[in-house]
Specification:
Layout (H helix, E strand, L loop, with lengths): L1 E4 L11 H13 L3 E7 L4 E3 L11 E4 L11 H7 L3 E6 L3 H4 L6 H14 L4 E4 L2 H13 L8 E3 L22 E5 L8 H13 L5 E5 L6
Parallel strand pairs: 1-2, 1-4, 4-5, 5-6, 6-7, 8-9
Antiparallel strand pairs: 2-3
């Protein structure tokens, strides 16, 4: 059995990238995955995991976490008898702290150290894998777990697709996502400005919440 971590994503209302990765991965695992969430008050997962886990059981998470947010989680990792696996996304909070949410910046060093206690880690890209291994070397970890690349898939919803009739007027380019420097909207604006200066007629629409930091 795969015990799949839904501590944050299970109740998340905002469809962030992390939420979509976790949700779609759990959907694809189907009946092989059983959702569990960490409870701060009881310092254990709910529904409770079998104790001990069998050698064929795995705990799998695509979330971000730290002992401060999940009191008792470190002790659980150390005592867990089953396999422990995690999806690693990136090290942006450490590489670009000036454009990252303060909570994420504060969490990431502890998160990366906890990640080293897992039995297996999958990075979402070769660049992310290199970042993680480099940070672990910098942190002085001598025996990190194996890290392999598990490339992100397409985020299809499996619903019927519609081809709308093009509206009158110039073409419209839609950029959907949080508005902040790491999403490269500034570069997009510069490219569009060059195209507009060259006489190309189109509209650019940026839609998304704004990073207040």
């Amino acid at each position: 059995m795969i015990y799949f971590d839904v501590t944050k994503t299970g109740a998340a209302g905002h469809r962030s990238g992390l939420t979509r990765v976790s949700t779609r991965l759990r959907d694809e695992l189907g009946g092989a995955a059983h959702g569990v969430a960490w409870r701060v008050r009881s310092r254990r997962f709910h529904p409770p995991l079998p104790e001990p886990l069998s050698s064929s059981d795995w705990f799998l998470t695509a979330e971000l976490f730290a002992e401060e947010e999940r009191p008792g989680f470190t002790a659980w990792l150390e005592a867990s008898s089953g396999g422990r696996a995690a999806i690693f996304h990136d090290a942006i909070p450490l590489k670009h702290p000036h454009i990252t949410w303060p909570q994420s910046v504060a969490r990431h060093p502890a998160y990366l150290k906890l990640l080293a206690r897992f039995d297996r880690v999958w990075a979402v890209s070769e660049a992310s894998r290199a970042e993680l291994l480099g940070i672990w070397r910098w942190q002085g970890l001598t025996r990190p777990p194996p890290v392999e690349v598990l490339t992100l898939g397409a985020d299809f919803c499996r619903g019927p697709r519609r081809t709308p009739t093009p509206a009158a007027g110039p073409p419209r380019l839609l950029c959907l996502g949080i508005l902040e420097p790491r999403k490269n909207q500034r570069f997009l604006l510069e490219v569009c400005a060059d195209l507009w200066a060259g006489g190309l007629a189109f509209e650019l629409h940026l839609v998304g919440r704004v990073n207040p930091h």
